[in-house]
Amino acid sequence: MDAQPPGSGPGPATSDVLQQIMAIADQSLDEAQARKHALNCHRMKPALFSVLCEIKEKTAVSIHGIQEEDPPHAQLTRLDNMLLAEGVSRPENRERGGPAVVAGTATPGGCPNDNSIEHSDYRAKLSQIRQIYYSELEKYEQACHEFTTHVTNLLQEQSRLRPVSPREIECMVGVIHSKFSAIQMQLKQSTCEAVMTLRSQFLDARRKRRNFSKQATEVLNEYFYSHLSNPYPSEEAKEELARKGGITVSQVSNWFGNKRIRYKKNMRKFQEEATIYTGKTVADTTEVGVPGNHTSCPSTPSCGLSGPFTLTNAGGAFLTLQTLASLRPSPGGASLQSQARGGWQGATPPLLTTSPAGDPGNVNSDAFR
DNA sequence: CGTCATGATTCTGC
DNA sequence: GCAGAATCATGACG
C-alpha cells in the first residue's frame, strides 16, 4: 500500500495523502455526525449561511437554462410505437405524456403484416425478448427511483448547510430522470433491434422455398391419390404424413391445399401422376392383400373407404364412392365441413382415362370410366 | 433468361 | 378455424 512512486517523484508525498484519506475513512460515523452538529450549532452559522446565499445569488448560473433542454422525444415515441406494434410493450403503462398511441399507423414501412406471424418459434423468442425487456425496464425504474430518493434526501440534508432551493432539487431530479430515460431509450433501441433481427431471420426462413424431398412428395401423392374421393387428411393422418415425409404438419396442409386446387384446375395434367400413384398404391395394397393402402394411411379410418372399390366393378363405382364419401363419418371435422360444402365432390370426375392395365382394383380409374 | 413447377402466403367466404 | 382461390417467390430446367 505504501508503495512510493518509482523514481524520484518531486510531488507531495503520496503516502501522506493516502494516510489522510484513510483517516477520513477510519473516522466513525458518530464522529462525523458530531462535527456536523457542531457546525450547525456554531454561532456564526447564520451569518455564514447568508454570505453563501449572497455569493450564490451573484455567481449561480440561471437554473432554467439547464432544465428545459428536453429534446422533442420523437425518437423515444418512435421506439415506443415500434415496441407496441411489435407486441413487445403494452399500450398501458405509458406515463410519458406524449402522444403515446399512434401505433396503428406508426412504422408504416417497417412491419407490414404483423398478424401474419404466428409461428411458434417466433412467438417464443418474442416473448423471451419481452421478458428481458420488462425485467430490465423494471430494474432501471427501480434504480432511478432509488437514486432520486437518495439524491433528494442528500440535497435536503445539505440545504441546511448551503443554499439549495427546492427548485434546484427539482432540477437535479429532472437531470437524473433524463439520464435514466436515456438509458431506457438505449434499452428500447436494443429491444427493437433484437425484434427486427428476429423478424428478418424468420421472414428469410419462410421465404426460402425448398422443394420437398422425393420421399415426401411420394408419401403425399400416395395419400392424395389413394384418397382422391376425399383428399382431406385428418389431423392424425397429417401428422403421420409429416413424419414420413420429414416435413411439418402445416407443410402437409399447404401441400394438400395446393394439390386439391391445382388438381381440380387441371385434372388432365395430373392424370399421368395419378396413374403412377394409384397404380403404385394398388400394387402395394394387393401385395399385402389389404385394399386400404397401409403405407399411406395407417391410422386413418378413411383408409377403409377405398376398400369397397377394389371389389366393385368399374361401372357406377364412382357414384357409389361419392355417396359413400358423403355419408361416411369423416375422420376430421374439416373433411365433413368441406363435404358439406360440396367443395371437392364436383371436381373429382374425369380421373383416369387410361387405367393401369390389369388393375381392376384401381379405385380412381375404375371410379370414373 | 424465360418458363414452368411448386411451396408459401394472403384474402375471402363460410 | 378451415378450405378455396389468387398470388407471390423461388427453384429447376431447357
Overview of this protein structure:
With 369 residues, the chain is mostly helical. 64% of the residues lie in helices and 0% in strands. The protein is rod-shaped and about 115 Å long. It binds a DNA duplex (14 and 14 nucleotides) through residues 113, 116, 206-212, 232, 250-251, 253-255, 257-258, 260-262, 264-265, 333-334, 337-338, 341, 343-344.
Overall average residue pLDDT: 65
The helix content, as a percent range, equals: 55-70%
Low-confidence stretches: 1-10, 65-70, 93-118, 285-342, 349-369
Total DSSP E strands: 0
Largest sheet: none
Shape: rod-shaped
- The radius of gyration over CA amounts to 39 Å
Which structural class is indicated by helix and strand composition? mainly alpha
Distance between the termini: 103 Å
Q: Strand content of the residues, in percent?
A: under 5%
Sequence of secondary-structure elements:
HHHHHHHHHHHHHHH
Number of helical runs? 15
Organism: Prolemur simus
GO molecular function: DNA-binding transcription factor activity; sequence-specific DNA binding
Subcellular location: Nucleus
Domain PBC: 9-204
Using brief descriptors, characterize the structure shown.
rod-shaped, DNA-binding, mainly alpha, 369 residues, disordered C terminus, transcription
